[in-house]
Amino acid sequence: MANHDNLINGEWVAGKAYSPNLNPSNLADVLGQYTQGDASQVDAAVAAATAAFPAWATGSVQARSDALDKIGTEILARKEELGTLLAREEGKTKAEGMGEAARAGQIFKFFAGECLRLSGETLPSVRPGIGVEITREPVGVVGLITPWNFPIAIPAWKIAPALAFGNCVVLKPADLVPGSAWALAEIISRSGIPAGVFNLVMGRGSVIGNALVGHAGIHAISFTGSTGVGRAIALECVKAGKKVQLEMGGKNPQIVLDDADLNQAVELSVQSAFYSTGQRCTASSRLIVTDGIYPKFIEAMQARMAKIKVGDALAQGTDIGPVSSQSQLDQDLEYIAIGKGEGATLAAGGERLKLDTDGFYMSPALFSESAKTMRINKEEIFGPVASVIRVKDYEEALATANDTEFGLSAGIATTSLKYATHFKRHSQAGMVMVNLPTAGVDYHVPFGGRKGSSYGPREQGKYAQEFFTTVKTAYTLA
C-alpha cells in the first residue's frame, strides 16, 4: 500500500499518521495511504512560500507561462488515468472523471496565456507634468482550501491563477479525497516551478484549515465548501485583514414553463439534479413547474428516472455512481425522511441500494407535491434529491426561484424569448441558464453567485485576477 506525503519546499514530507483513501463504489478498494499533516507543517509550508515569493513574484512571466502550460499538457495526456483515479476516490463515473481531469488541464493552459496578458493603465494626472501608472501585483502567499466534490478541477482553478499572477501557494485539499490533489501536486513538482512556490499540506480541516486561516504569513484565503465553515473563515480573515474569497452553498432553481419542450426540460432537469450524484453546488434541487405542464412533467420524469443506471463508477453503462461517503449518504436519506414527514410525495427513488460491491449507493429521489416552505426546498441536501414545486405562472415561478438565501445558479426551460430575457435580468443568481442544465460551466468565464452562495471576487477566467492580484497606483514627476 503506497504512502503519499505532503509537498513542502520541494520535498515530500510525512505527517504524524496516514489515513486510507477508500473507493465509495467498493469499500474493499483502498487507493492508498495519505498523510495527515499538522500545524507545524503549515508553518513550514508558509515559511517556504514566503521565502520563494520575492523571486517568483518578480521573475519571468514566460517561465511562469511555460510551467503552467507543461502542467496542463501532462494533465491532458493523462486524463484517462487521472479520471479513473478521481472516479475511484470520489464516485463520479469514469466519463465524468475524465471530463473533470481534462477541464483541469485546460484551466492550466488558459492561465499559461493569462500570465502574458496581465495589463495595466497609463493615465495623465490632473496635475500637469505628472504621469500615472496603474498596475497589478501578486497578493503574496495564499491559502487554498478545496472541497471533495471536484477534487482536481477546483484545486486547478485556484492554483493556476494564483501561480500565473505571481503568488505562492499552500493547498489544503479535502481530507475525504486527497488522491487527485496529490497527483496534481506531483505533476506540479516536476514542472520547473521553484521549490516553495507551491506546497501541499493534507489533513483534517479542523487542523490544517484552521492553521492556514489563522496564520500571520498567509495574505489571502480562497475557500470552497459549506456555508457555515465559509462564514467562519470570512470572520477570521476580516479580523486579520486578509483577502478572502468564498464559494459556498446553493439551492438552485430550475423553472419549467408551460411552453417548454417537455423532453428537453426533463433531460436538463435530470442532468442538473442527479448526475454526479447531485453532488454539485450548481445542481438544481428545486424544480419549479407551472400548472399546465406539471402532470406531464412528473410522469415524464418518472419514466426518465427509471432508465437511470446506478452502479460502480468505473463500470460500463453506469449513469450515476455512489454517494461520496457514509455521512453524506446518511444525510441524503435523512432528508428523504424529512420530505415524507413534511407531506411531500416521494414520486421516484430515494432508496438505499445493495449492489454487487459494498458501496454508498442510493437511487435518485424525486418529490412531487412539495411546498416552497418545506425544509427540502430550503436547505442544501447535496445529493441526488430533487423536489417539484407547482406554481401557476411565470411570475410565481420567478418569485419562488428567488425565495432562497442562496444565489449561485438558476435555469429556465421555455420557448418564450420574452420570459427568457426577463429571467436573465431578474434572476437573483450569479449564473443563469436558458434551456440548459444549471450544472455545467466553462472554464474561461467567471464562476460565482450572490447572497449566501459566494463572497468576494469571482473565480475563473480573466476575473480571477481580481482576487489574486492587488492594484498599485504609481505617480511620476516628468
End-to-end separation:
66 Å
Number of domain modules: 2
- Give the overall silhouette: globular
- Helical run tally: 14
Largest sheet at a glance? Answer: 7 strands, mixed
CATH top level assignment of the largest domain? Alpha Beta
Looking at the structure, the CATH topology of the largest domain is Aldehyde Dehydrogenase, Chain A, domain 1
Strand order of the largest sheet: 15-16-17-14-13-19-20
Could you say what the CATH architecture of the largest domain is? 3-Layer(aba) Sandwich
Provide the gyration radius in Å.
23 Å
Question: How many β strands by DSSP?
Answer: 23
Helical content, roughly? Answer: 25-40%
**Regions with little confidence, pLDDT below 50 for 5+ residues:** none
CATH H-tier superfamily of the largest domain? Aldehyde Dehydrogenase, Chain A, domain 1
Overall mean pLDDT stands at 97
| Class by alpha and beta content | alpha/beta
In terms of DSSP E residues, the strand content is 15-25%
Q: Any overview of this molecule?
A:
This protein has 478 residues and is of the alpha/beta class. The chain folds into two domains: 3-248 and 453-477, Aldehyde Dehydrogenase, Chain A, domain 1, CATH 3.40.605; 252-434, Aldehyde Dehydrogenase, Chain A, domain 2, CATH 3.40.309. It is 38% helix and 24% strand. It is built from 14 helices and 23 strands. It has helices at residues 39-58, 61-77, 79-90, 94-114, 153-164, 178-189, 205-214, 227-240, 262-274, 294-305, 326-342, 394-402, 417-426, 465-468; strands at residues 3-4, 6-8, 11-13, 17-23, 26-36, 121-124, 130-138, 141-145, 168-172, 198-200, 220-224, 243-247, 252-256, 284-290, 345-348, 365-370, 385-391, 406-407, 409-413, 431-434, 450-451, 454-455, 469-477. The strands form six sheets. Strands 15-16-17-14-13-19-20 form a seven-stranded mixed beta sheet, with helices on both faces. A six-stranded mixed beta sheet has the order 10-9-8-11-12-22, sandwiched between helices. A three-stranded mixed beta sheet has the order 1-5-4, with helices on one face. Helix 3 packs antiparallel against helix 6 (178-189), helix 4 (94-114) runs parallel beside helix 5 (153-164) and helix 9 (262-274) packs across helix 10 (294-305). The protein is globular. The relative contact order is 0.14.
